[in-house]
Here is the input.
Amino acid sequence: MSSGGDGILSRLATWTENLSEQAYAYLLLVPGFLVLLLFAFWPLASAIRMSFFADVITSASLGEFVGFQNYVRLLTNTNALAPAAFVDPSFETPILEQALFMTVLFAVLSVTGETLLGFLYAMLMKAEYKGRRLVRLLIILPWAIPIVIQGMIFFLLFRPGYGLLTEPLQQLGIFSSLPLNTTFDGFVIVTVADIWKTSAFMALLILAGLESVNQDLYEVADVMGASRWQRFRYITFPLVFPVLMVAMLFRTMGALRVYGIIESTTVGCSTVPSMTCLVTQMMFGSATQYGSAAAVSVLIAIVVGLFIMVYLGFIRRSNQSLGLA
Amino acid sequence: MSIDARNHEDAETFDGTGDESGGEPGDDENRSPIQRWADDWIRNPEKAYAVMLVFLGGVLLTTSLFPLYWLFNVAMAPPGQTDIPLIPATIDLSAFVQVFQQVPFARFMFNSLFYAFTVTVFVLLVASLAGYAFGRLEFRGKTPLLFALLVLSFFPPATLFIPLFRAFNQQVPMLGLFTLPVEIYGTPGAVVAPLSAFTMPLAIFILTTFYGQIPDGLEEAARVEGTTRLGALFRVIMPLSAPGVATAGILTFITVYTEFFFSFLMTGNSAAEWAPVVDGVIAFQTQYTVRYDLQAAASLIAIIPVAILVVVAQDKIISGLTQGALKE
Here is the structure.
C-alpha cells in the first residue's frame, strides 16, 4: 500500500524534475488558479455581466440588456432609487455624502494612520526587552476582534448620553450630541475604529519584514560606524520596503471597499455612505437593483485600480532610487 | 552645550562602551535632575532611545488596549446597564459562564475554528506553490497573472456573493459548464471554498515577496545534494521564509475566523448548522433586548484561540534568517 503510494510519488517527482522552468511554473500555479477561477474569477465575470442589465426592483432577477445605462445614471446622480449619491457632478451634495469622495478620503486617512502606527508597533515588537512576547500579543489582539464586536465597542463609547467619550468630545466642541448620526462625526469614528483595528495588520506584516532582515548587515553597519538613521535609511527601510508596499497595497484596497465597520458601529450607510454601502444596499435593500449594484462594484474596481496604478508606479520609481530592482 | 554634546558623542563612538562615569561627578550635584538626564542621554544615546521607546510604547499600548479593557468592563456590568463606568463597580465574572449556558457557544467557536484551520492549511499549501512560481521562477505571463490576482481584490466581496449563492443554492452552472451538488450548501464546503479564494491573493503576494528574497545559492546547494524540486520548496524555501509563512498563516486564520458575511449567508443560523462564531455573539441580541454584557464576554472568549495561535506562531516569526534556519 505505502510502497504503491511511494511509487506514484517518486514517479511524479521524476516527472516534475524533467519539466522546463516555464512548464514547472505553470504546474505550480494550477491548483491556486483553479480555485480562484471557480470561486472568484467566474463570479466576478458574472457580476460584471450583470452590470449591463436593467434593475428589476420587485424581484431578485435581471431585466433587459441596457448597455452602460446603469453607469450613466450613477455618474450623473440620476438614479432616483440610489440610497446615496455615488458622485454628484453638481456638487450640491456635501463631499462626505458622496460615496466616491467619502471613501477616498477615508482610505487616505486610515491607510496613512495605519502605516505610521503599524511601523511604530512593529518597532516595539522587534525591540528586545522583557515581556516582549506579551507586548506582541497585545498589539495583535485588536486585529483578532470580529468587526461586529469592534463596532459594538465604538458604538458603546460614542452612544448619545451614555457613551464614555460622547460628552467630553461634545464639550470640546469637536462632536455633536449625536455623534453616531452626524456625517462628520460618524466619519471620524469609523476612521478611528478602522485605524485602531488594522494597525495591527500593518504591524504584523512590517514586523515579518523586519525579522527577515539579515542581522549581519547591522553588525557590518556598526563596524562602519553608521548612525541609527543611516542604519534605518540604508538597511532597514530598503529591505522592509517590498513587504511594506504589499501591506499598504492590500490595506488601500481594503479601505476603498470599507463597509462592515460602518454598519457595525451603527453609524450606518445613511450617515456615512461608502461605495460598498451602495452595493449592499442595492443588493439587499427593499428595492433590489442588481444591475446598478454590479455597476457600482465595477466603478469601485476602477477607482481601486487607479490607486493601484499610482502605487505600482511609485514602487517602480522607488526600486530604482533604492537600487533594488 | 551643543559643542559639548558633540564631544561626548564622538567619545562615545570611539570607546564604544557607554560608561556612565564619563562625566565629572562634581558637576552633577549642581544641576537639576532634568539637566542630569539630558546630559546622561547625550552621553549615552542608546539609553535615550530606550527611554523614548518605553514612553512611546506605553502611550501606544494604552490607547490600543483601552477599547479592550473597556469591553471587559462591559462584560462585568449588570445586565441591561448601558452606562458603563471607567472602573467596574464589582468584579462579576458570571457573564463568562452564562455565555455557554444560554447558547452552544463552544460549538459556534468550533465551527469558526474549523473554517479558519481548513482554509489556512489549504491556502498556505496552494499559495506556497504559486508564491514559489511567482517569486523564484521565470515564465511567460507572470506579470499579467500577478495583476489578475490583484484585480480580484479591486471588487467588494459582496459583488461575488450573488453569483456564488446561485451556484451553491440554486444550482446555476459554474462557468456555464457544471453544477455543484445540492448537498454542499449549508455545509462547511460552501464557506471554505469561497473564503479560500478570497484570502488566497494576499497569501500569494506575501509568500511571493518572501520566497523571492531567498538567495538562489541556498536552494542550489540543496538541489546539488539531491533534494527534489518540490522538496527544495518545502525543506529550504519555506523554512527560510518562516516569518512570511507564519504571517500569511496568522492573517488568513484571523480573517476567516472573524469573517461574517459569507459564513453567515452560506450556512444556517444555529450552531449545529455550521453558523460562525460571530453568529454566536449576535445570538444575545433579540428584537427587543441586547445583552451587551454577554456579547462582550462572548467576544472576549472568542479572542482566546487567536491569542493562543499568535503566541505559538510568534516563535516562527522571530526565527528569521539569522536563527537556526540557515543550519538546515
